Amino acid sequence: MAAKTLYTVVVADDEDELREAVCTMIPWQDHGFCLLGSASNGLDALQLVEKHGPDLLLTDIRMPFISGIELARQVREVRPATNIAFLSGYDDFQYAKQAIQYNIISYMLKPLTMEGLGAELRNIRQKIDAQYAMFRQTAPRTGGPDQRAAMLLPLVLDDYAELEGEAQAEAYARQCGLLRDGEDRPCYTVMVSTLLDEGGGNRTEPSFVASVDRLAAKYLRSVSFFSSGKVISVLLGNPSDFDEYLHILADEIPQMAERVLGCRCRIGVSRPARALTALHQAYREAMEVLRQGDRTEGGAQFISDLAPAVKGGSLLCQRALEVLDQHYMEADLSLVSLSGMLDVSPNHLSAFIKKCTGETFINILIRKRMEAARELLSTSSLRVQEISQRCGYTDQHYFSYCFKKYCGESPNAMRRRLDQEKAGEGV
């Protein structure tokens, strides 16, 4: 085991004794893991995942502030390459199964013995080993060329938009199984992926097609093929599928490439196209993204991230902070909704915010909300519950926890202190 890479893990549970026991009594390295940290609630767990990008999050399903399932959803938004293992009571088990799409690798029922947890960690280790081995496998796919890829390749690479071409293309797409029937009319997006060596040179191998396709299949219908040093993927789905999953997939591929292959991955993504005969234009858009982006940096960019000029550099970050100032009081504000207001991808916005400020979106949002709350506490007579709601929190306990963590004292304690200070000045 010593020769193997240790997988990193974060533990989250609101039962202090159980969390401490798990953290201190489990011989993590013997099971192939390295413990990065622990959290007593969903918010702290999410921040630890954002900061460290662990291979595994081991979390209770019933957590304060952010439930285990909501935590899993939010982790998938920021770190889709992280696997999640749930600890749950018997009554929560069916509830936990709802989260299957959020990279859940294991369900463990409480009460749990240390021996039982150790055995399950060994199982999880084997599952992650298998995941990573599949991602890095170099053996070519068997069975010859995929009929769907053979059908799509000329549509993507050639300017093949004849006047009568769409009906023919759709008929052929149904024949080879790309489309299900005459009612199946998806949108199409083209995604181009390349692997880079340390100097920024292209090191993409044909075997990377299988790695990309396997991850894409978790979220969308897809067909990928290799051409001229890049993996070209045609993704199929309806607009809501693309809105929900496309940015997650475009994050997971570079995260896995860095973690498993030790190299950066650049991805360019086109606009959605309505017709098969529009695939060549979509491919050109994806390639334009790769041409214009920073060739030495990994990560995903979408065609919508390129123009106008305000969508790049510090101007984008400045605009994002301005919009955040205007909307921080909305309880459902997220990186995804903020990126929608700015008409850029969440991937691009997240990368620029981190690059320009050195902080994650969630930390900036919490700080803005806490500064606003501190101002309201010191200048108004509003009740703490009203201040909580004005600062984007529907749960007053969650608000009070964040406030104490950020300001060092609870909202009520701060108000009492300020009142005493004012009374002292008036004497």
Weakly predicted, low-confidence segments:
none
Question: Mean pLDDT across all residues, rounded?
Answer: 88
- Our estimate of the beta-strand percent is 15-25%
- Total number of beta strands: 10
Please state the CA-atom Rg, rounded to the nearest Å.
Answer: 24 Å
Per DSSP, the total helix count is 17
Shape: globular
Helix content: 40-55%
Order of helices and strands: EHEHEHEHEHHHEHEEHEHEHHHHHHH
Oligomer state equals single chain
* Alpha carbon gap, first and last residue: 70 Å
Task: Find the structural class using helix and strand composition.
Answer: alpha/beta
Strand order of the largest sheet: 2-1-3-4-5
The biggest sheet, with number of strands, parallel, antiparallel or mixed sense and barrel status, is: 5 strands, parallel
Label this structure with key terms:
single chain, 427 residues, alpha/beta, five-stranded parallel β-sheet, five-stranded mixed β-sheet, 17 helices
In brief:
The protein is an alpha/beta fold and 427 residues long.
Notes on the structure:
With 427 residues, the chain is an alpha/beta fold. The chain has 17 helices and 10 strands. It has helices at 16-25, 42-52, 68-78, 93-97, 114-136, 147-157, 165-175, 208-216, 239-261, 279-292, 313-327, 335-342, 346-357, 361-379, 384-390, 396-407, 411-426, and strands at 7-12, 33-39, 56-60, 83-88, 104-109, 187-196, 221-227, 230-237, 264-269, 299-302. The strands form 2 sheets. A 5-stranded parallel beta sheet has the order 2-1-3-4-5, with helices on both faces. Strand 9 (264-269), helix 10 (279-292) and strand 10 (299-302) form a beta-alpha-beta unit. Helix 2 packs parallel to helix 3, helix 5 crosses helix 9 (239-261) and helix 11 packs across helix 12. The mean pLDDT is 88.
